[in-house]
Amino acid sequence: MLDPSAPKNALDLVPNQLLETKNQGDTYLKFELARQTPAVLSMTQAQEVIVLAPSRLTPMPNMPPYVMGLLNRRSRVLWVIDLARMLGLPGVETNVQQYSIIIIGNESATLGLIVVAVEGVVRLTSECIQSPLEQLSLSIVPYLRGCILQEQEILLLLDGEAIMRNANQ
Asked: Which residues constitute the domain of residue 92?
């Protein structure tokens, strides 16, 4: 005979307090912007992540050095940029087998951002966001919504709208 007080599924075994804290905060896509530079971008701005061979990009002449080319994605053509280079950091390696690309967009445009690596999704509360630290390069500050001190690292909270505005200039 079954015990009516026995747990019905695995979630019944998890304390309620743990479940409540786990789902707090907004979701962010965590990635490595440049070597040893972790960053996050709101999942409301990130549309998808793709891995792509560099040969799939069509280079365009007379563009800023951070513009890597054009990409035809689902019958839409979008610009792809090296995000780290646009922000004044060392850019991604160009002699790689594939690029990690984050597709961001708003109502009027879509843009591909090449990053070193995509690490996953994290939840962060607005209370943990701090103003940009003084040690950061001034070229990055206009693209930041803040910084997050998390465990052993500082995450840069990037502003997708500011990135879109600058890339379209």
From this structure: 27-167
Count of structural domains, the chain? 1
Residue 54 and residue 35: Cα distance in Å, rounded? 19
Q: Is residue 13 part of a domain?
A: no
What digits encode the pLDDT tens for the residues 86-112?
998 888 887 889 999 999 988 888 999
Is the Cα torsion angle 120, 122, 128, 129 positive or negative in sign? positive
- Nearest CA-CA partner of 84 in 107, 60, 100, 63: 100
Q: Looking at the domain assignment, is residue 150 inside a domain?
A: yes
Q: Which domain CATH number covers 96?
A: 2.40.50.180
22 domain-assigned: no
Q: How does pLDDT run across 22-76, given as a tens digit for each residue?
A: 567 889 999 999 888 899 999 999 999 999 999 999 999 999 999 999 999 888 8
pTM higher than 0.70 for the full model? yes
Q: What is the distance between the alpha carbons of residues 102 and 80, in angstroms, rounded to a whole number?
A: 9
Structure tokens at 55: 């040969």
- Two structure tokens written together for 14: 């998890």
Distance, in Å, from the CA atom of 84 to the CA atom of 141, rounded to the nearest integer, reads: 13
